[in-house]
Amino acid sequence: MSGPSDELSHDPAHHPAHRPAGGRAHDPAPPVPPAARNVPALLLALHRTGFTGSVTVSSAPGGTIHLEQGLVTAIETPGAPTAETLLLKARRVGEADWATAETAASAARPVDAPAAWGGDLGAALMAQGSIGATELEAVCAAAAFDGAFALVLSPPGSWEIAESAPPARIALRPGIEPQRLFEETARRLALLTRLWGPPGELARTRIRPAAAAESAASRIPVRYREVLAAATGRRTPRDIGFALGRGVFSVLLDVVRMDARHLLHRETALPAATAPSVAPRTPPSGPLPTATGPLPRRVPGVRGAGNAGGHGRPDSRPEEAAGASDGPPNAHRTETTETTEKSRP
Amino acid sequence: MSTQTPTAVLVAELKSLRERVMGISESVISTADGLLVAADTAAVHPESAAALSAAMLGLGRRTAAEVGVGGLRDVVTRCNGGYVVVLAIGDQALLMVLGDEGLDIAGLHRESPASIRRLSELLGMVPAA
Amino acid sequence: MRALEASLSDVLDSPGVVGAALVDAVTGLSYHSAGDHRLLGSGAELAELTNLIGERLYEAGVESELESVVVTSTRHHQVVQVVPRQGDPLLLATVLDRGRTNLALAIRQTADRAGGLLA
Fold this sequence. Notes:
The complex is a heterotrimer of chains A (345), B (129) and C (119).
Chain A: H1 39-48, E1 53-58, E2 63-68, E3 71-76, H2 83-89, H3 95-107, H4 121-127, H5 133-152, E4 158-162, H6 178-195, H7 199-204, E5 206-209, H8 211-215, H9 222-230, H10 237-244, H11 248-260, E6 264-267, E7 334-335
Antiparallel strand pairs in A: 1-2, 1-4, 2-3, 4-7, 5-6
Helix pairs in contact in A: 3-4, 5-6, 10-11
Chain B: H1 7-20, E1 24-31, E2 36-40, H2 46-67, E3 74-79, E4 82-89, E5 93-99, H3 105-122
Antiparallel strand pairs in B: 1-2, 1-5, 3-4, 4-5
Helix pairs in contact in B: 1-3
Chain C: H1 2-13, E1 17-24, E2 30-35, H2 43-59, E3 68-72, E4 76-85, E5 87-97, H3 103-117
Antiparallel strand pairs in C: 1-2, 1-5, 3-4, 4-5
């Protein structure tokens, strides 16, 4: 069980890290980044032009979207575990095997690869028999979709495009069409909204097991028990995902299912920051207020007041037109826009 | 250093930082010589963390002085399972932040100055304006 | 997802298999589907169904893991096989023509294919 052992000895010209100097013959240099009013529109434009490089989004949290030939190969964000975290924390690949693969990947880099690039870690893992190609593809795809979902929950931010960014070390190749990411992300937002309420709010809620969960442990699926065991009361579903090596959306879904069965309590989430905070001059009046009890049920037709910073409802984000992009053209540019709702280009 | 500041107010600021920066799991405030001041912790032993973080910051400061790169801002230690970040609170105290693999480092650099400022005031090191 | 698509193509080559899909058992994300998979419904529906059944097994005090779900209609068997792994499981779902295979064989085939999927 392994990928072909010659995976690491690529023809450098076809290696993902290799970019011909000077660009393609028919392209003017330097290329002008496409005009876009938000990240989804940008990704569609980059798809049309077959862009290879990265888009770094600044937000709380932001993230980096890796593209090759216009397809999304990986997304890194503090909001969701990467493929690496999914494999290591779920103990699918041991730390020692991981270190071995890192060494092999580094050693197998083409001579002209950028110094910052650590090598094709996915190929190394397969070559040494740590994981099969099918499973690795599934994990990388899952991580990319999870990253896209996590980015939608962030406040709008600016972005920077980098054509010479090193490729992701573990990536899905070929990558995912941006349109497919948008559709799946929209489906996830709609599902959570229907089952519970604003996904952003749910994602920031810190959870702990309810008393019923302790007494009924044997009648709860093992996967739920693991989430409950990791639910310290300090952790959000995203934190639990990182602790267990599971996707943030996967954990959110399980949290919603467990909430429906009254297996959880929640600690009140503070509203998300929509801009970098400035500390108040007067000290707070005491410890943060907490509330315990089963997660609130969504009442049809009634919108909760606690929706500060919630981004879960695809229909509720006003499109703001501040995305003017007629600054000086160059390959690295920061644009400030008001929306980064990934589900609606 | 003021001994009148209620621990709860310090811990509230630590909790606030944890809310604002994704990936922070625990944090500890200690004096420059390693005595625990306040902690928002769950798994780590606060007194041990306080002592170790002071040692890290002290070593970082001496190193920075030795190689002549200016004053120390913070020490970021990256591990397989997460991050340990130690930030100075003036000369007399420090803040240690623990984070998981997905710690929002950019967010921490953005949000920590305000927290450091507030903690300085609360610790009586800087007069509030 | 070339290897994944190739794996699913292999499944489609089995006698009697007219459609197949590989789905994430928790999120319902459909990694790939091939052939005539309409009968299977969406990945999300498959995930929701198997999760519900899994929950019920535990509630009933059975305390065992769900292995597969079979739905039989006039002309087809649909077999949804849980593919356990270190991490969230996958679902390998197949549609089989009853005229070309029987139930025991259908379950066996799908289980075999599922076992070889992650190798």
